[in-house]
Amino acid sequence: MPEPKEVIEAREKTNDREYFKELVKTSPLLIEWANDEIRNDKEIILEAVEVDGGALEFASDRLKDDKEVLLKAVSQAGWTACYASERLKDDKDVMITAAKNDGQILYYASQKLRDDKEMVIAAVSQKAIILKYASQRLRKDKDVAIAALNQSKKCLEYIDKSLLEDDEIKELIN
Length: 174
Description:
Blueprint: H1 5-12, H2 17-23, H3 36-39, H4 42-51, H5 67-76, H6 92-101, H7 111-114, H8 117-126, H9 136-139, H10 142-151, H11 167-173
């Protein structure tokens, strides 16, 4: 199957900043074909991730460590926090914003944030089964269990067994 015309053109214009500045407004993922300098251009990457957070994949490492860029990307597509620098995977603002859009992102959060009640509740409220990546301490937390169970009963095996005798938890299970 031949490559689409847009891809061929992007590959031919890999060094053309103005071309990519316009292109990302309608085809942000084509930033993949830009040169390193353009993929390190904050203005262009911000424009790209505003349209499609997935464009973050092709940003420079420097921009994957830029909180403004990450917040814009994860606000558009929470799962893109997987591309964040290690420093920003430990940033509560970035990761909670991501979790509110895609609870699965708890998997990529730092150990510290996997033990942060607000972070874990944001994640399990979106995807209950992600409770399995929460700290052991928070798997014993009633509020966390309730948030997860309200989203889906599929998380039951990850809730600490000591909570299963609680009347409010029993009511949610049945």
